[in-house]
Amino acid sequence: MRLDLKLSHKGLILVIIPVVFELIFIGVLVKLLQEAEHQVWLENKVKTIAVESHELTKLFYDVGSAVVLYGVTRNKAFLTRYEDGMAQIPDQVTSIKKSVHELNPVDRSFAPVETATFNGLESLRQMRAKAELGDTRALFSRDARAILQEYVNVITQFVEQQKEIENQAPEKTAASRRNVIFWLGGGLFVNIAMGFALAQFFNMGTTRRLNVLMDNTTKLAKRQVLNPPVGGSDEIAHLDRIFHEMANALDESAKRKQELVSMVSHDLRTPLMSMQVSLELLSAGAMGQLPDQARKELSVAEYNATRLIHLINDLLDIDKMEAGKFELVCRYSEIGYIFERCVRSVRAFADRHQVAIAMPDDDDTKIFADPDRLAQVITNLLSNAIKFSPAGSEVMMTYEDLPDATIVKIIDHGSGIPKGFEQKIFERFQQVSAKDANEKKGSGLGLAICKAIIDAHEGTIGVDSKEGEGSTFWFRLPKERYSPTPQEPQSESASQP
User: pTM of the entire structure?
Assistant: First the structure.
């Protein structure tokens, strides 16, 4: 049975359960430690009672010996010894009784000792009285010895009881210590086991489902079928539902986009191309000579039709790139030939803007690339350079043939690119400035397509610019990406018709 809890509730469980367990565990340990300390105290107290009981027996013997010696010798020192002992005996009895009551307030085992002590003290007083009278025979009478022997027997019996308790005390102390060690080890084991159990609970309820979401992000990027919904009512389930809804919306958007691309490709480009041919025929006089004003309007219409066709072609190229259908047909081609193709395609545009184009002298330097796509990149960069260059200026095309790469540069003397836009202009629908005239505005796709083409060649593209002083667009194609084989495609050169 799976608990349908929110992440906040699971977080509380992960915190509360260990805290409650630790509190209980600490309480048990404190109790066990208190019991162990109490057992040690009991052991020490029993030892104290045994020692004090021995001291009491010694005092009785000492006092009895002192009174007998005093009666025989009449030496005052023995009398002083007798009196000191008689004064200490009650205090010693009181101390032992207090210790016994601290161990067990209801313990009556010391009562016979008190009674025997009272009788013994009375007997010792009588013996002193007889010693004062000089009756030494009475000091050694059987009655006196019997009273003293009875006291010694009671004290000895009490001491034996305390010894028995003392002998049991170490075992009980050791048992208390074993309990503490057992609970420490058991608590540590339970704590570790509980940690693993909670981790498993969290993993089954959260981590596994988060992994499903992460896998879905990868599948969505690769346009693969998503995993089934994770289920539940927590935040992860809610996020998963939103993710599936978003994926469905993206699929629907992709279908609409594909329909739009199909419509653009078939229903717009074909008529526009037909329209462009018709406009070119009219402009060439195929239908007769036209007035100057009509030719001017016809030129504007032809230019706008060409712009629309280029925009449609850019959109179709972007769609191919996103769909993974963007393929390169690479072969060795002379750079000079590619440059010539690009210059021919923009010559009329450059003449209209009164911008000159300079290119290096023709040579046989070759580059391994898709010549058509490479020409598309250079043509786009040339068009942009011409578009943003002032009349009477020059756009220069150059290249560097390095041991590990070939670098192509397009240099203009236009308005330059504002700082911070050097990388943004290679993104889709990004334009340098909105203040330019309408003729200078583009679709915002040209440089993005250039970057995609260069990336497909495993190269890099960029721009070095200073606002107000012109720009240098460049791209670098590495040579190590291609190892020549005996069967290379036929190269394309300027010698071709």
Answer: 0.48
